[in-house]
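Interim report, section 4.2 (structural modelling).
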Amino acid sequence: MLSIGELSRKTGVKVPTIRYYEQMKLVTAPERSEGNQRRYSNVELERLTFIKHARDLGLKIDAIRELLDLSAHPEQPCEDANRIAEDHLVATRERIAQLQRLEAELMRITTGCQGDSIKDCYVIQSLSDHALCQDGH
Amino acid sequence: MLSIGELSRKTGVKVPTIRYYEQMKLVTAPERSEGNQRRYSNVELERLTFIKHARDLGLKIDAIRELLDLSAHPEQPCEDANRIAEDHLVATRERIAQLQRLEAELMRITTGCQGDSIKDCYVIQSLSDHALCQDGH
DNA sequence: ATAATCTCTCTAGTGACTATAGCTTCAAGA
DNA sequence: TCTTGAAGCTATAGTCACTAGAGAGATTAT
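Predicted structure of the assembly:
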């Protein structure tokens, strides 16, 4: 049996976050010691590892809840699990593309500045200028 | 003089968001009509355009506040403005790199699944398996 | 004058935690 | 056995940047 601190160290999930997950019913309330402290078994260790891994991949709590529900039904087809992962892959790619557009714009702004006082600063000008922000970034 | 709705249409910033910015003191409280409605001049239009542009680039409110302070002092050197923009560029690149690692991992997971029921599902297995998450992503 | 639209303030909710306060329990050493 | 310090408990509030909703008043077009 693990204390919440030991579980935290084994999974890399912070103690308050574990309690938060319990509140959100992502993990079920574990047994308690005589003195009312949480005591976890390997079942909970595995579940929390699953959650940690999924969170690290950027999956939302709701998506993780769905995956956990699915994994509780081993005979069901795995289409749904794939769909969740693939949807997230698509969203991740979109986010990357968007950030790359921003990166290009930031590069343009930061490398363009030749002035040495604010009144000539290209960064400030670019942000001020309505014309510059119209075309698409 | 513009109503808050007109300002919203011109800048692309939603009406409640404009009021929120006023509360956060990013924009100063404008004049009011007889009936207590906000009336904006071009000064505020430009300031809000600046804010919108900066937010679209992903800059945080605090960074924007700093840039606005800087732009109020045209004779100051523009190093600080450049630093803010460059810091954000670096952070954006790191975020892109991180998302690309996640993308690779998600691809591995989603394309690896050959099973057709949850008990063989590679997505679920990958998330469950502690070994798979140790090495680096 | 009236209807439709806009605007006002205020409060609360979002997601996924994080921080704080004030208390109790546990484990290890003297 | 006693003590001390770390770890754990609950409950509440704060974070960021908004967004939603209620219920009331203002403005504009017809």
